[in-house]
Amino acid sequence: MAEHSKLYVTKERLSEIEAELRNLKVHARKEIAGKIAEAREQGDLSENAEYDAAREEQGLLELRIHKMEVKLMHSTIIDESEISIDKVGMLTKVRVLNKKTKKEATYQIVSAEDADFEGGKISVSSPIGKALMHHVINDNVQIKVPAGVLEFKILEISR
Predict the structure, then answer these.
(1) Is 153:94 a contact under the CB 8 Å cutoff?
(2) Regarding the domain delimited by 7-77, which CATH topology (the fold level of the hierarchy) does it fall under?
(3) Mean pLDDT in each 10-residue stretch from start to end of the chain (159 residues)?
(4) Domain residue spans in the chain?
């Protein structure tokens, strides 16, 4: 995540992030501290692979905790009931028709951290997400992607 970019989340998603952070700080830290203590009991730390592995795991955990804290600092809560469906925007769902394949797809526009293409959640910063933003129903949108150009028609916008 860029150092000062905003993360738009629902209250529910914010609660999930806070719960995960609490779990990492309490349970994961305790578990790694136990691994480090156990490895220390084995003697010479200079040639102790288990100690080195536990310390590396601790470093990765602390990095993950830091990233989550930054994410929380830059989070902005969006009330889903106030999301406008006049045009495509953050957290809206958009049903589109691929004009070439004649197949429909539904995507929800989310932050990069919440993107899950298989789950239908695309990042606002992805080529498709960027191109769909601010369009309205019946707009035709051309999207440059690595595989070429997609042409979508917006069929529906919802929450």
Answers:
(1) no
(2) Helix Hairpins (1.10.287)
(3) 65 89 96 91 79 93 95 85 88 95 95 86 92 96 92 95
(4) 7-77, 82-158
